[in-house]
Design goal:
Radius of gyration of chain C: 21 Å
CATH superfamily of the largest domain in chain B: Thiamin diphosphate (ThDP)-binding fold, Pyr/PP domains
CATH class of the largest domain in chain C: Alpha Beta
Strand content of chain C: 15-25%
Largest sheet of chain C: 8 strands, mixed
GO cellular component, one term (chain C): membrane
Oligomer: heterotrimer
Distance between the termini of chain B: 50 Å
CATH topology of the largest domain in chain C: Rossmann fold
Number of strands of chain C: 16
GO molecular function, one term (chain C): transferase activity
Protein name (chain C): Acetoin dehydrogenase dihydrolipoyllysine-residue acetyltransferase subunit
Chains: A alpha/beta (322), B alpha/beta (337), C alpha/beta (366)
Keywords (chain C): Lipoyl, Transferase
Shape of chain B: globular
Number of strands of chain B: 14
Cofactor (chain C): (R)-lipoate
């Protein structure tokens, strides 16, 4: 562990923010305050934060339908995100994207994506920009185990190897693609191995362990920034909620989620590791918890108070000029 | 100023814009060609030679040969556009939209709207359209109507070398995704093309020929067939006004409606299939906005609602020609209630 | 007197055929020299053909609404006593002359460019003899001389020169001022080995021609100024602004119509040519620079009255009576002979080409 106190606190704050954000979204969705559908990231926080802790605002990421965690980890404004999910004026995308298209190009966030496997080809584009402009930025694609099966993902990995792009393919294997197990749908059951088959270094890491993700990502990022080409990281992780809010999860065995929360909670893990090692005190972490709880309250209050988007925005921002 | 082919005009546009702006890159299969072969680079320069020689001047970092993976090409182009490059990606045959449409249709076209106006996607997709080379059902289509139906995309269909150069430069400088359609049988067509860089604006039709009897709207190769038909008809005393919209998105509706207001008759000529097409779209436009001035039913001359056939004889039947256009115009002119 | 043909004229570089729009004299009608005989439409412009001599329109051969190649027989002029059979025989025996090799070579040659210290100016040269140099107005190009240049090229080496920022010339206009443009013209004339020439300038080009003549009086044989800029403060700012701004056909057409008395003169090709010039990279910025230097705040900043008054060579002014760009009243300031052309706007050399060509030919010859 080479992280200083400040970095550790930031990592914890980001992970807690994601967790509380998702829990609150689940509540607000149940109350009927959030239209459409939302896909929650709770349980996978160590992945988003472990990866994004190596990225600056000029590095790019592309996300999935389960994108809130990646957005927060990449620095998107939490209040703006909440407004967006509520479909309100002032939302991060003006209420025109919603949960599935949360994006903020000012923070190098190329968007959550409604299309499984939609992101990797875009990410190699951002990586191409970095390579062409020689600015040593990197681009990261977050994909699930489901997206790992898509042809677009394969094409993007091959292209990244062929063009030696500074791209990093992060596969968050949470065990499920919608309502079907990765055990069934990922033929080789080895996403990292498959990525390696494209000709890039690939590792599998424990997604319960922020530090494992962080270490793997450090190596991949250093390689990419130095012109060494793409890498892949398979993160074994778990999903505390269903595919989407309101998913009855009939495909899961009894007590599965309870067990996951007890045994595979990356937040609890982190807290234990840093306090055991005397890197942070419990009080430091509690203070962060309180801070985050207030922020989420503030975000929801703002979202509830915000007006809907102006009707005329229906017609704006289709084109830059037409 | 010299006579140049469409191929030369497009090459010149690419080279001049790449010189002007280091962010402009060319991406596609065989845009240089020869990578990983004994023959060396620039073996192809595009399947029809448009990008030949660019790699010599601009190097392989800006003339980027890719594997035959259209989703990765289109996605990489879209992702690079939204992050700071101005890519010109080649979708070799427009028929191949089938393997990569998500990256165009769900991604590039929607970034700006979905992201609340923050995205700029200065992406150009050059793609070949058109039948006439016995390339059969998967290499001969003209699917600009499909692209035109997508909000967020702009669609360009030049019919001559002057327009081709000016429209391509405009497309490269434009901040929105542009589908740039090139008819595969027209690359050798010549016209006067300035040596300097210039732009032709989107959304302004070209009036190829003035006339007061019948308005003909035609695209790409059909512009030339319609012009030939108009010549024939002029000798018979029927004066056709021939409009080449040049871009279908944005579409210059005013020029079409102004013309129909004078002629009262409309014939749309389109090499694409007729259902949910540009021909249908323009017919609807005129029916909706100019019904009162129509002296005859709107007529469409299009390919039939079939895939493009292979055998030369069948393909000839498939593609509208000057005789068919002239016959339909005569019917429109002679229509009596 | 014998039977003479009236044939399809060649107006401008690219004309290959023309359309008879309307006969303005009836068959059998008498006409005087300079009277309008018929309207002819080309891809560039619609104009009237004027009678070169007095005569009678004995037989109209080309009906209205027909398109014919250059040199085709349009009508026959014959003495009243000529028997009909002779007229018939003349018509039957008429052959459209093949274009001479010289004309063909010229047509192929087209405009050329001259280098002036790293910048290039485009010009069209026709004919041989004492040089005549023609300078167009703001926003125009060498096509403005399409009726003038052929009328002078039979006796002169004519050069229609495009000013910086215009047509096919460099878009580097420097400061865009009178001096900057005059410098460019002087440099071009030096490179083209033109020691002495008759200068003709239209509008802004008129002021440039006057400046060139004032700098080197020995080099200007005569000076013809057609509706020149620089003789008064007024200028049609709507035209200047509109010209600079227009990117679309409709706007361009509205602007060009201000130039002429009869708006029907503005053809779609004229509009297209204007837009094509303006679409070239740097063209609009160049026009903006020039407009700012010459017409700031909607008034003329350039004043050539003093230099014109001081010129020793023969100077004539030609002005359209219905000029809506530069008012004809400015002519008074110059204190030189003025020819006011009736039924013409700011382009008398195009609108009443015959009359203006006559004025120029006689003036140069004298």
């Amino acid at each position: 562990m080479q992280l200083n106190r400040e970095a550790l606190l930031k990592a914890y704050r980001d992970m807690v923010t994601i967790r509380r954000f998702e829990e609150r979204v689940q509540d607000e969705f149940s109350k009927g305050n959030i239209p459409g559908f939302v896909h929650l990231y709770a349980g996978q926080e160590a992945s988003a934060v472990g990866v994004c802790s190596h990225l600056g605002p000029d590095d790019h990421i592309a996300s999935t339908h389960r994108g809130h965690g990646h957005s927060i980890a990449k620095g998107c404004d939490v209040v703006g995100m909440m407004l967006e999910l509520f479909g309100r004026k002032g939302g991060l995308c003006g209420g025109k994207g919603g949960s599935m298209h949360i994006a903020d190009l000012d923070h190098g966030m190329l968007g959550a994506n409604g299309i499984v496997g939609g992101g990797p080809p875009l990410v190699i584009g951002a990586a191409l920009t970095a390579k062409t402009l020689r600015n040593s930025n990197v681009a990261v694609s977050f994909t699930g185990d489901g997206g790992s099966n898509q042809g677009t993902t394969f094409e993007a990995m091959n292209m990244a190897v062929v063009l030696k792009l500074p791209a990093i393919f992060v596969f968050e294997n949470n065990g499920y693609g919608e309502y079907t197990g990765a055990e069934y749908a990922v033929g080789s059951r080895d996403i990292a191995g498959r990525a390696a088959g494209f000709g890039m270094p690939a590792v599998r890491v424990d997604g319960d362990d922020f530090f494992a993700v962080h270490d793997a990502m450090r190596e991949a990022t250093e390689r990419a920034r130095a012109g060494g080409g793409p890498s892949a990281i398979e993160v074994s992780t778990c999903r505390f909620y269903g595919h989407h809010s309101g998913d009855a999860q009939l495909y899961r065995v009894k007590d599965e989620v309870r067990k996951l929360r007890e045994e595979h909670d990356c937040l609890k893990n982190f807290r234990r590791r840093v306090t055991d090692a005397r890197l942070l005190e419990a009080g430091d972490l509690d203070a962060v918890d309180a801070e985050v709880a207030a922020l989420i309250d503030q975000a929801v209050a703002a979202a509830l108070a915000a007006p809907p988007p102006e009707p005329e925005t229906l017609m704006t921002d289709v084109y830059v000029s037409y | 100023m010299a006579q140049k082919t469409i191929r030369q005009a497009l090459h010149e546009a690419l080279a001049q814009e790449m010189r002007r702006d280091p962010r402009v890159v060319v991406i596609g299969e065989d845009v240089a060609g020869g990578a990983g072969t004994g023959g060396g680079r620039d073996a192809a320069g595009g399947v029809l030679g448009v990008t030949k020689g660019l790699i010599t001047e601009f190097g392989e970092d800006r003339v980027i040969d890719t594997p035959i993976t259209e989703s990765a090409i289109m996605g990489m182009a879209a992702g690079s556009a939204v992050s700071g490059l101005r890519p010109v990606a080649e979708l070799m045959f427009s028929d191949f939209l089938g393997v990569c449409f998500d990256q165009i249709y769900n991604q590039a076209a929607k970034f700006r709207y979905m992201f609340g106006g923050k995205a700029r996607t200065p992406l150009v997709i050059r793609t070949m359209i058109g039948a006439g080379r016995s390339a059969a059902a998967q290499h001969s289509q003209s699917p600009y109507g499909i692209f035109t139906s997508v909000p967020g995309l702009k669609v360009v269909i030049p019919s001559n070398a002057y327009d081709a150069k000016g429209l391509l430069i405009q497309a490269i400088r434009d901040d929105d995704p542009v589908i740039f359609c090139e008819h595969k049988l027209m690359y050798d067509l010549k016209t006067e093309v300035p040596d300097e860089a210039y732009t032709v604006p989107f959304g302004e039709a070209n009036i190829v020929r003035d006339g007061d009897d019948v308005t003909i709207v035609a695209f790409a190769r059909m512009v030339h067939y319609a012009a030939a038909a108009a010549e024939t008809l002029a000798r018979e005393g029927i004066d056709c006004e021939l409009i080449d919209p040049r871009t279908t998105s944005p579409l210059d509706a005013d020029t079409i409606l102004d013309s129909v207001a004078r002629t009262g008759r409309l014939v749309v000529v389109d090499e694409a299939t007729p259902r949910c097409s540009m021909a249908a779209d323009i017919a609807a436009l005129v029916a909706e906005h100019a019904f009162g001035v129509l002296k005859a039913p709107i007529r469409r001359v299009t390919a039939p609602h079939t895939p493009v056939p292979f055998a030369p004889g069948l393909e000839k039947l498939y593609i509208p020609d000057s005789d068919r256009i002239a016959a339909v115009v005569r019917e429109a002119q002679g229509y009596a209630r | 007197m014998s039977i003479t043909p009236i044939t399809m004229p060649k107006w401008g570089l690219t004309m290959t055929e023309g359309k008879v729009v309307q006969w303005l004299k009836p068959q059998g009608g008498a006409f005087a020299k300079g009277e309008e005989l018929l309207e002819i439409e080309t891809s560039k412009i619609t104009n009237v053909l004027e009678a070169e001599e007095d005569g009678t329109l004995t037989r109209i051969v080309a009906p209205e609404d027909t398109t014919l190649p250059i040199g085709a027989l349009l009508a026959v002029v014959a003495p009243e006593t000529t028997p009909a059979a002779e007229v018939d025989a003349f018509i039957a025996g008429f052959v459209v002359p093949e274009p001479s090799e010289e004309t063909m070579a010229e047509a192929e040659a087209g405009p050329r460019t001259v280098d002036i210290g790293g910048r290039s100016l485009r010009y069209l040269e026709r004919g041989a003899g004492v040089p005549v140099v023609m300078l167009h107005g703001f926003g125009a190009d060498l096509n403005t001389w399409m009726f003038t240049q052929p009328a002078l090229a039979d006796r002169h080496r004519t050069i229609a020169l495009e000013l910086p920022g215009h047509g096919g010339s460099t878009k580097d206009v420097g400061a865009g001022t009178l001096d900057a443009l005059a410098d460019a013209v002087e440099a071009a004339l030096a490179t083209l080995d033109i020691d002495r020439a008759h200068l003709i300038g239209h509008s802004m080009g008129g002021a440039v021609a006057a400046a060139v003549a004032a700098r080197r009086p020995d080099r200007a044989a005569t000076l013809t100024l057609i509706a020149p800029a620089g003789l008064g403060p007024e200028i049609n700012a709507t035209f200047i602004d509109g010209f600079v701004r227009a990117t679309r056909r409709k706007d361009a057409e509205a602007v060009l119509r201000l130039l002429v008395r009869d708006p029907a003169l503005v053809s779609r090709t004229m509009v297209e040519d204007m837009l094509r010039n303006k679409r070239i990279d740097g063209a609009t910025a160049a026009l903006e620079t020039i407009a700012h230097a010459w017409f700031p705040g909607g008034h003329q900043a350039v004043d050539i009255t003093a230099s014109v008054a001081g010129l020793a060579m023969a100077v004539q002014l030609i002005w359209g009576a219905d000029d809506r760009i530069v008012p004809e009243t400015h002519a008074l300031a110059a204190r030189v002979p003025v020819h006011v052309v009736e039924h013409a706007g700011h382009l008398p050399h195009m609108e009443k080409a015959g009359a203006v060509n006559d004025l120029i030919r006689r003036f140069i010859a004298a």
